[in-house]
Amino acid sequence: MSQGNPLERVADFDLSPEQRLVRQTVREFAEKEIAPHVERFEREAQYPTELIEKLVPMGLIAPMIPEEYGGSFSDVVTYGVICEELARIDWVVASVVSVSNSLVGGSILRHGTDGQKEQWLPGMAQGRIITSACLTEPGGGTDLGNMRTSGTKVDGGYRITGTKVFISHAAHAGLLLLVATLDRSKKHKGVTAFLVDPQSEGISIRDFPMRTLKRDNIAEVHFENVFLPDSALLGTEGGGFPVLGSALDMGRYSVAARCVGQAQRCIDLALRYAQDREAFGQKIGEFQMIQQKIADMVCRTEGARALVYRLGRMKDAGVERASMEASIAKLTSSEAATNNALDAIQIHGGYGLSEEYEVGRLLLEAKALEFGEGTSELHRKMIAEFALGIRKQ
Ligand SMILES: Cc1cc2nc3c(=O)[nH]c(=O)nc-3n(C[C@H](O)[C@H](O)[C@H](O)COP(=O)(O)OP(=O)(O)OC[C@H]3O[C@@H](n4cnc5c(N)ncnc54)[C@H](O)[C@@H]3O)c2cc1C
User: Fold this and answer.
1) 6-130 classified as CATH 3.30.1490.20
2) Could you tell me the pTM of the whole model?
3) Pocket of ligand 1 (CB under 6 A)
């Protein structure tokens, strides 16, 4: 355990020396190689391809992809540390890692055929293939059992028609994880997962303008009678929910870890400012009301971090489904990130909203994490249902 700064001592609690070394290495890398460029990419709405490429030689692009496919497979807690430290500096770079490793890579590893693993995983591990998850539709993202994007079985494959919206990375992706229904009347049991080459005929990817994360080039993806061969089916027909279910535990874990990173960044920025800015002849960090905000930010972050790493340890111990713990970690950490951004902005006064400071940008980016991988309402509903015994793991 480190003996230095008391915040670091708490943050490092119970990580192994190797995991602490990974934290230190990723933090230094992200601060040096990524941080100086993020604002420019955002201002220019430019996808940070050159920053993502820097992850590859560091072994950070594929921490959950096994070595036999070229990944740098690590334990789940280490993966969380990587997501946390990357997200502390950049939402988009961290998102590339978490979508590819948790949602898409995890689904292929669990449900893919040998051919699918060989077709997709090496390119993902080399950073050649960026991935996107196409779940949300214009009619809603929470009620996935009611989706409209539909597929029809034809000779040798399927024909898919429909629209997905809010899709991160789609404009730059080499692989789409798509869910579509083969029979709407079956609700959840009709939903089916596919691995889709975005170059397939009939797919068009258009800008989906957002007020935040312009550097992610978030897109809508249209499928017009797209032919997918049988080999694109991931899992079984109607087996899309089990594919998503097992992937979402890990997806929520990595998003929760990213939220902890953002919450921590808000603390770091607020401390720096509170120790420097003066009012009424003293540092603003000496005012009790500023200290109260700092205390709240630290408590939220430490609580969320403990929940995230508890979930990581459960996964490392081989717990296949930990949906309640995943919901608790995701809900707590995403709300911590948003509330920390609000407090950090308040500590910065009006400068919190000036372009000179990073902290204002973090608010909408944190808020976005309250939607992806399940909204706060969905997680509250699930946690209550688990507690009431209405829902089982
Ligand atoms: C920055 C960003 C990136 C994203 N990236 C992706 C991506 O890569 N891929 C992808 O597929 N999607 C992505 N999304 C979409 C995200 O997953 C959806 O926004 C989310 O699932 C919610 O869907 P919705 O926005 O359609 O809201 P709706 O489902 O329409 O919900 C609207 C409101 O109703 C609430 N609500 C819905 N059902 C219930 C219920 N049963 N009980 C209580 N409240 C309920 C919701 O919590 C929400 O507050 C992204 C979103 C953002 C903001």
Assistant:
1) no
2) 0.95
3) 132-136, 140-142, 166-168, 213, 218, 368, 371-372, 375, 377-378, 381
